[in-house]
Amino acid sequence: MYQIFFKALKVSFCIFLTCAFGPQAIAQDKNVVDSLVRVLKSSPSEKVVMAAKIELGWEYLNNDDVKAEEYAREGFLLAKQFGDSAKMVKAGRVRGGALKGLERAQEAIPILTEVLPIARRNIQLRDEYRKILNTLALAHTFMAEYDKALEYNFQSLVLTESEGGKGEVGRALNNIGLVYFKLHNYDAALKYFNGSLTVFNEILDTAYIPSVHLNLGLSYIHLGDFKQAKFHTSKALELCGDHCSDEIQIMGNFGHGEASYWLDDLVNANKLLNLSLSIARNTNNKRWQAENLVYLGAVAIKQKDYKGAIAALTEADSIARNSGYNQLLMDTYRHLANLYNETEDFKNAAVFQRKYITLSDTLVSQQLVKKISKIQSNYEERENIATIASKEVLIGQQRDLNIAITGIAMLAGLLLLVLQSGNRTIKRVNAKLSEAKEIIQQQNHELENKNRELDIEVDKKTVDLGRVNQSLKQVNDELDNFIYKTSHDIRGPLASLKGMCNVALMDVKDPIALEYLRKLDATAERLNSILTRLVIINQINNSKLTIENIDFSNIINDVLLLEKKKGLPPELRINTFIDPHATIESDKELVRIVLENLIDNAIKFYNDSDRVESFMNVHISSMHDDGVKVRVIDNGIGISESSPGKLFQMFSRASERSETGGIGLYITKTATEKIGGRVGLLTTPEGYTEFYVIFPKTPYPESQRLERRTGS
Predict the structure, then answer these.
(1) What confidence tens digit (pLDDT) does each residue in 669-708 have?
(2) Burial, 463: exposed, middle or buried (Cβ in 10 Å; 0-12, 13-18, 19+)?
(3) Which of 537, 533, 501 is closest to 516 using CA atoms?
(4) Which residues of 6-27 are buried (b: 16+ CB within 10 A; e: fewer)?
(5) Residue whose C-alpha is closest to residue 63's, from 19, 106, 94, 104
(6) What is the pLDDT of residues 345-362, one digit of tens each?
(7) What is the residue extent of each domain of the chain?
(8) Torsion, CA 664, CA 666, CA 669, CA 672, rounded to 10
(9) Which is higher by pLDDT, 333 or 656?
(10) Pick from 260, 270, 312, 478: CA 20 to 30 A from residue 661's CA?
(11) Please, are residues 271 and 295 in contact by the beta-carbon 8 Å criterion?
């Protein structure tokens, strides 16, 4: 059924680069190159040499990008020396294009950004200006900087609509569709791809029509509409041949493999992805090596080949980090987190889950959504103000808004019911634990009184005690499993809720509705934070200790760097005092969790009064053979809880500022006790709040930790 469809996918991924810049390579005129080389060797004029080098860079562009970059760089320096703005623009544009072709987009962006305003000011360089906009947009797309990519694409579209031909408009629309495709907003991508197809059909541009059909086919794959995908890919095959370059073969086999993966044809997916990877290795194409390795890792996870999955994803991680492909790096972290969750390696799962969340917040943050929404709104307001004002559109928008609000309200209600049910279950489990403990204590007392007289009764009670202990263990296991499953079951609806919020934020124009959606999205984000902390509690309880030397200085620096990224209050003064002799052997991740929660707690509840100079002091001192004592002192808003011990209980909140549902200090206490330490709260003579933690020199054995918890 899908033979024609899969055949078309073998050339599908050529669409993005083909439609962005035209043919994959410009035919190099050897006679022109030889003539320009002779000019370089014979001309005494530096201006003639400058022009020749720039033209050589243009001739080598997309054929030998290493030489293209070298000649363009030298020509650019000469053009800058002579103050020739037109030559500077062309040389900068050629060099930027060559660096992009060499997969060095992060180097191309500042060069293109430098020449962009020069081209914009010169009316005679409008064509160069448009090409620079397109190259910048694609470079930012590769760097996963989608707001900037979309901004440059819309600037190019506005320019081509007013000054360029329809073909340029079609390519600009296609490039905008590419950005939305990368953002996984496939409905928006379809809108712009269809617009591009309409333009190319009007001018009968047979060179690009097949590529746009393939774009539409790929989008429908991700939307799960294989009937439409088959139609567009079959249409593309009627219009284009089968002669493909190495890069197109890489992309085509990858696309075919991706489709097989989503159809659960894992054997065929593995074969096609490995074929694409082999060609990418032979041509040293780093980006497509990483793309294939990510999906090969995903295929291996589905096949339960965890060793192969780790090998593929580790290599993908290395390539993506070294090349700056942030989107691929985020996908790699997500698959690694899923892999370690499936293998019940919860410690590594937490590490990669945290990396994924951090990078995801950076790349697809609420701020990015706002920027993209603003960029899109600015363009649509410019082009469609008359349509937006019509009653029919207003009615349609109101209807869509009502549907979205109704759906979001239903999801929010469902989430609330699930959380209430979870809280009731936890209370029931705690009651059972208390009841079991009382029964054990009563039976132990009876056994002590009757030990000499009733041997048979002792044996009977011993059997009963064993059963109760087994029941207690089972209840504990069920509690851990409940927390883990509940957190993961809720995360799916929560992700859908946030996704609907993000879509609504881009589409809805009503200011009141937007305010509601932002508040709902913020609430969902706080719930996501609570769920993540519940998973961390489960992982702490089930993790095995990894003992190593603890460097408190590095950990504190890492925690403060993370807090700076999250945003520190400018008026808060932070001081650290670390004893160089304060060394212990413990589990580094658990120590980090303790310090991170205490420091984050002090920052969160800082005193924001203008009359107070807010501070936070971190003291880490050696206790010689007894371990290390950590003190976090602040002059924040203080603790209103009358019984400080309750602050370390789950869901106990010290202030209305708490956004984690009262879990942070419970995590601190759980992690501290896991490594044999203890945590407490007191008020200093000056009236400041002090949290202290005592870490032992080495973690206590499991038996000693149990004795410390039971008080025996």
Answers:
(1) 888 888 889 998 888 888 888 999 999 988 865 445 444 4
(2) exposed
(3) 501
(4) bbbbbbbbbbbbbbbbeeeeee
(5) 94
(6) 888 888 888 888 887 766
(7) 24-143, 244-252+283-381, 390-542, 547-710
(8) -60
(9) 333
(10) 478
(11) no
pLDDT at residue number 25:
42
**CB distance 96 to 111 below 8 Å:** yes
Phi, psi torsion values for 710, nearest 5 degrees: -85, -10
- Alpha-carbon distance 171 to 197, whole Å? 9
Q: Which amino acid is at 483?
A: I
Concatenating the DSSP letter of every residue in 640-694 gives: --SSGGGGGSTT--SSTT--SSS-HHHHHHHHHHHTT-EEEEEE-TTS-EEEEEE
Q: Could you tell me the strand order of the sheet in which 628-634 lies? A: 573-578, 615-622, 628-634, 689-695, 678-683
d(CA 292, CA 300) in angstroms, rounded, equals: 12
CATH number for the domain running over 24-143: 1.25.40.10
Q: Which residue type is seen at 287?
A: R
Q: What angle do CA 352, 353, 354 make, to 5 degrees?
A: 90
- List, for residues 43-62, the tens digit of each pLDDT value: 788 888 888 888 888 888 87
The CATH H-level superfamily of 244-252+283-381 is: Tetratricopeptide repeat domain (1.25.40.10)
Same CATH fold assignment for domains 24-143 and 244-252+283-381: yes
- Give how far Cα 571 sits from Cα of 430, 608, 611, Å: 43, 8, 11
Q: What is the largest CA-CA distance in the chain?
A: 117
Say if CB 196 and CB 160 are below 8 A apart. no
| CB-based contact 606:614 (threshold 8 Å) | yes
Helices first, then strands: H and E counts in the chain: 27, 7
What pLDDT is attached to residue 13? Answer: 39
Q: What angle do CA 572, 592, 608 make, to 5 degrees?
A: 15
Under a CB-based contact definition with an 8 Å cutoff, are residues 43 and 52 in contact?
Answer: yes
d(CA 572, CA 605): 11
- Mark out the alpha helices in 390-454 (DSSP H runs): 391-450
Structure token digits, residue 359: 């990078």
Contacts of 148 (CB under 8 A, 6+ apart): 136, 137, 140
DSSP state, 27? P
In this structure, CATH architecture of domain 547-710: 2-Layer Sandwich (3.30)
Q: Which among 216, 247, 287 has a CA at the least distance from the CA of 18?
A: 247
**Per residue, what are the HEC states of 171-214?**
HHHHHHHHHHHHCCCHHHHHHHHHHHHHHHHHCCCCCCHHHHHH
Query: How does DSSP classify residue 223?
Result: T
What CA–CA distance (Å, rounded) separates 319 from 603? 36
